[in-house]
């Protein structure tokens, strides 16, 4: 019988990931040290590519 992992670690990881995403979005909107922005973009390139594949390239209207 296959062993399954409990749901709570996945949910906790997702919560932390969402909080980190919100923090970094706020940071990018308010702070512009070029080297830090560049490092963040490198760190998040895979997640951003996955998001683009899932959601397309549509822009949000503000």
Question: What does this protein look like?
Answer:
The protein is mainly alpha-helical and 62 residues long. The protein has one domain. The N and C termini lie far apart (51 Å). Helix content is 73%, strand content 0%. The protein is built from 3 helices and no strands. The model has no long low-confidence stretch (mean pLDDT 73).
Q: Any descriptors?
A:
mainly alpha, single chain
How do you describe this structure in short?
This protein has 62 residues and is mostly helical.
Topology diagram in text:
Layout: H1 7-30, H2 34-43, H3 45-55
Structural class: mainly alpha
Radius of gyration: 16 Å
Task: Work out the helicity level.
Answer: over 70%
Number of strands: 0
Mean pLDDT: 73
User: What count of structural domains?
Assistant: 1
Q: Overall 3D geometry?
A: globular
Give the helix tally: 3
Order of helices and strands: HHH
Strand content: under 5%
The quaternary structure here is single chain
- The stretches of 5 or more residues where confidence is low (pLDDT under 50) are none
Distance between the termini: 51 Å
Strand count, sense and barrel status of the largest sheet are: none
